[in-house]
Structure formats: structure tokens, C-alpha cells
User: Fold this.
Amino acid sequence: MSGPQSPELLRLAREAARRAGELLRDGRPADLAVAATKSSPIDIVTEMDIAAEKLITDVISDHRPDDGFLGEEGASSEGTSGIRWVIDPLDGTVNYLYGLPTWSVSIAAEQDGERIVGVVAVPMRGETFHAVRGGGAWATGSWEGERRLTVRPAPPLDQALVSTGFNYVAEVKAHQAEVARRLIPLLRDIRRGGSAAVDLCDVAAGRLDGYYERGLNAWDVAAGDLIAREAGALTGGRPGERPSRDLTVAGTPGVFEPLQRLLEDFGAWHD
Assistant:
């Protein structure tokens, strides 16, 4: 269950995610995807990534200077409070580069290694997802007020809509494509959203029946995993294991286990 610090941690995470999302949304050059040189758009995205992470760590540190951090762009400190923040300031970098809307800011708080708060802001959708351990998963968006999230009733696997992602290393991507080729006839269909955090939140919101991906880092999934589980999803890695770089799987009960078994049979976790 949530602890006495959770309301403060949630408030800080939501504020930091909102401000970072606004920075990324409003600071993105309109011509970013068609810049004159190959390196310049990547450099700009990297600069935005770093600026967003700094904004997040500054907001949190101003209120909680003794907390630790683990961030994609290099924020790393142990802290002395027992709280560590796990941050992905821009999940869905390629979508951001091309002007696609599916990118997010992901912030989670851990207490003694256990995730207790998660926030994922999706600025171009106008949506923010959040959860406190034991308190359910919630979202704000174009609707009025906060909406409690609940996963979809589980369909038969051949009617399940499942999302995945692909690595940028050619050999790994080729293996992932082969796994997807074998899965597609056994499912309703596969989607490729481009942001692990958003995919996990879409499982929570009932927009997907399942999700899997190989090669993810802690900051990719920390907030989204908590949000999905608090909405009733099951999450894990290989059978009997927690999500890891080898494999992350999430799904509504009834989809999770058969999907996980297929991924194990197909060797989704290795080349």
C-alpha cells in the first residue's frame, strides 16, 4: 500500500512531468524533422532530452534534496532518503523527431527498491496517467475530471490487440521482426506505437490487450509498469521473472500468460 510520502511524491511527479512536457512540446522547432543535415535534428532532440531531464530533477530536488535519481540522460545519485526517482524525460524520441504525437515524459518514485508512484504525461494527446501503489490507476484528458483506469476484459488470444517495439540494432530488429511474423497469425493484430511508457498506459486504459518488448531499460517501464498493474494488468518478463532487458510483457489477465508462453517458445528474449 502507499505510504505517508506518496501524496507529496505524486504531486511532485505530476508537476515535473507537466512542466517537462510543456518544455518539449513548446520548444520543439517546427522544422525539426526536415533539418538540413543529418546530425542537427538528432543534436536538437538530445538537447531537448537533457533539458527536460534537468528540469525534472531540479523541480524534485528543490523540494526533496536528499532523494536519489536514475535518468536516461545521465542523472544518477544514490540519495539518503530511501526514495529514488526513475526518469525518462522523452520516451519516443523518433516520434518526437518526426512530429508524431506518441511520445511521453515518464517519472516513477521508488522506495527501498519498490515502485510506489508513477506518472506518464503524453502532451500531444493532452493526457496524463498516474498511479500510487495500492491506489489504482487514473488518467486525465479531454474528458472531465479524473478517470479510473481498468484493463479490458480478456479476449481469446486470437482476438487480442498487442503492441510491441523494435530495437535500433539491425540484427536484433531482424530477430524481433521474425518473432512478430510468427505472432501475427495468432493475434487480432500487432501495433507499433513507439513509446513503451505510452503502450503500458494504453494497456491500463483498455486500448490494448497486451504489450511486449525486448531491450528496455528501467526508466522506459518504471512508471508505466506500475500504472498497468494498478489498472489490473499482469506484467513480467520471461516466465517467473520480473520485467527486464531480456523481455517485458504486460497484458490483461487471460492474455498475459499465453502471450508470455508464445514469446518464450519463439525465443523473443534472445538473438
Observations:
- The two ends are 39 Å apart (CA to CA).
- Helices lie at 6-27, 39-63, 93-98, 170-183, 196-204, 218-230, 256-265.
- The mean pLDDT is 92.
